[in-house]
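Submission sheet (multi-component)
Chains listed below:
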Amino acid sequence: MKVVITEWALQSYLNLKYRNVFTSDEYWDVIRPDVELLRDQFPHNPKFKNPGFWGPATDKSGSAITDGYKMKWHNIGPGRVQLRVTVAILQGRAFLCEAYVKDSDAKDKRECAKLKHRINRIAMGNYKYRGTI
Amino acid sequence: MTLPFQTTHEQIIRLAEIVTAMNRASLDLRFVAACSELARTDQGVFELMELWHDADSEGDRAETLADLQDLIDEAADLPSHPTEKPYVPFNGLDAVAATVMEQKKRLRELIDKHGGVTAVARKIGMPQPSLSRLLNSASMPRRTTLYRIANGLGVPESEVVGEWVQ
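Outcome: structure written.
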């Protein structure tokens, strides 16, 4: 499956990298290989059965967002933060939507609301992207 | 094609209540109207507005306003079809971020000359947390946002638009 780097994803990576949320080593050794699993081994790799790594995104009422998912990393970077990437899977492709630090439930809910909005945009073709993986 | 996450009739009714609350909170009318317009069809935007309404803290409320403004600015510059922009390799992110932050430093100086973040945000009809986020984040600013700042301050485009913009 093709993995699309959306403009939203690039902008979020840019800010997180600048803030040293994760190191370059973590990117190459952990984050990038995990994202590449979407391209090469989704949904068969056992990691996609691990709710600590992968799961449906849920909205503020707790309902799963159709086509919306979260990839999760724990204790990442010097700050040992909870890093998340929202992912939309539709039209036979995986769209990386936004990386963020989950530092509160409120932040998580906002990101999931934005994911719904972005799934709308992707479905309508109203989006920019920065290449594919 | 209909939006996958279309605002329901019940949510549109609730929207009226939230818009009234935003108005009572003295948010800029242009901002409230733009939120309302987007939320009438887009459930994600509606849910952000609801999160603003139900937020437990001023910090969460401020972050939600900045998110909403971001979606409003994005809507002003939506491509009609998927548009590929140049790839930025991971190894290039640090250099891009450094340039963006240098560009934002100059923008902050300009804003300070015009009375500071709060005054300029009010002038251009943008929530103050949104302008603060724009200045502090290493993400590329949106061209539409920069135009709004240039128009509000009466300065030429060349004073606000740098090398890297969305």
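Remark: The longest strand of chain A covers residues 64-76.
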